Amino acid sequence: MTLDVNYIRQQFPILERKINNARLAYLDSGASAQKPNMVIDGMADFAKTSYANVHRGIHTLSNEATNAYENARKKVANFINADEGEIVFTKSATESLNLIANTLGASLKAGDEILITELEHHANIVPWHMICAKTGAVLKWARINDDGSLDIDDFKANLSDKTKITSFAHISNVLGTKLPINELTQLVHNFGAKVIIDGSQGIVHEKVDVKSIDCDFYIFSSHKLYGPTGIGVLYGKSVLLNELPPFLGGGEMIETVTKTNVTFNEAPFRFEAGTPPIIEAHGLGLAIDWINKFDRNEINAHEQSLLDAATNGLRGKNKVKIHGNTKDKAAILTFSIDNIHPHDISQILDKYGVAIRAGHHCAQPLMARLGVSATARASFGIYNNMDDVEQFLNAIDKAIEFLG
User: Fold this and answer.
1) Catalytic amino acids?
2) pTM of the predicted protein model
3) Which CATH architecture has domain 5-28+295-403?
4) What is the reported pLDDT for 56?
5) Nearest alpha-carbon partner for 113 in 166, 153, 157, 150
6) Domain 50-291 adopts which CATH fold?
7) Tell me: the pLDDT tens digits for 217-264?
8) How far from the centroid of its chain's Cα atoms is residue 303's Cα?
9) Cα gap 138→128, rounded to integer Å
């Protein structure tokens, strides 16, 4: 059985748009995926019929909203094989990473080491720079190989008794490299350090089981998983979450407040100060319901076929260089064209209805490792088809013709 992509595409109204009188070939899902009607309509219906603040009220609307919010937490937990109390809702994956950096990282001392990789997004770099500046800890980097794979030997060489925290991507947002997260987690735990995984791309392209991985924290966002913006997820082992200090102060995260003292709620509520993203949580739950209608293996096979076709098409073109050539990579295709700036490539492709990403992709250390200042990136989702690939390749020919 294969995916009925035509049926899937009909559920995404934005794909009916014309861009510069051309059909839209949306190849920027790695930045943010489009939303199906089930999410769009479900969020609108919730706002029309059941919206209220959560947890604090005892009236009907508040009870309905609270049930919907907590049901979304349950859906997320089931989606990654976690317990409900291990799921914290934040405003983004970036906030989740900052939360962990500022709570787990607060206990670091001068000389302690944090290990990351050259593949990381800025959201998994900048918070660690900031914590190192505050604590005197040292940020270490594991190298990558020329094909974009992680240099496992170098990762091992950087581990020591000084290593207290490791934080790495499940899948690179630039190269599509899939890191061996189970193996890395075991290596890190052998040194007694904590494992944080940035799953912003991994949650989309892989079936995630946090108990099987045994990571301490796993982080992702909703908007790359066909859900709304404005909500992210932090999974943490229950015992660890309850040991961490709160990140923000305010309502909901307290147990008691007096003029002289404050005590804090248990996890996950101790990390959800203030009014949370209520409608967005409901939308994330709906996105998970939607994606669960399909077989993940079929999704992966479909995306891989698109990646293979686009990759083979680019390899046949003069002046084009593909960055990241690991086997079994995710459906992310990053490339350069000699003497053409990626921004110019993107602008030309947009004239033909093709939406791609151009720039440093919030990964400047990786750009430096690749020896470029910027690249172009096409990223594929469940709704893309071979027509999108053909339109992309034809537009690349136009860009080379006009600018090359």
Assistant:
1) 362
2) 0.97
3) Alpha-Beta Complex (3.90)
4) 82
5) 166
6) Aspartate Aminotransferase; domain 2 (3.40.640)
7) 999 999 999 999 999 999 999 999 999 999 999 988 888 999 999 999
8) 17
9) 9
